[in-house]
Design brief:
Blueprint lengths: L10 E7 L7 H13 L3 E6 L23 H12 L2 E6 L8 H8 L12 E7 L3 H13 L9 E5 L14 H19 L1
Parallel strand pairs: 1-2, 1-3, 3-4, 4-5
Helix pairs in contact: 1-5
Amino acid sequence: MKTIDHTEKKINILAISGSLRPNSSNDAVIKTAATLVAGKAGFIIYDGLGSLPHFNPSTDAQGRLEESAPQVIEFRKLLAQADGLFICSPEYAFGVPGVLKNALDWTVSSGDLVNKPVAVITAATSGDKAHASLLLTLTALSAHVLNECTLLIPFIRSKIDTEGNVKDSETIEAINHIMDTFINDIRN
């Protein structure tokens, strides 16, 4: 007798905010995304960007996990356990925040992001330059990023209420669409 299990595998998403500022606009977007995927996927928010050491290729040990700093080991383990990575980033001085770029640099020789499904939202005043830069970096890392899993949210502060919640219905709808598309991409 053959048993067929129709239960879908639980998807785990690792979320990273590119902002270290507490209660940032990017945190609000991540909180909204977490609410929208509830019941569809596990959602872990990584809050260790600020504790990662500065990337140094000579201390990366060619990506060997056991020889890395403890913070890097934790970050890489979370990446390995995640079925997909969701990044929400601001734009600083027309670019990707240094702490986010630093985290991504730690994955260069390890290959942690090779073919890993990634969704990207850039939420800033403008954001177009950081968005393009982040997508270029993810391409260099061979991450799997569908165009349908990327979103630029300009003038984000005007779309958040005083309690730190995304209030703009079009923005909520766009985040929901991205997350649904992302989950479907991970499943396939």
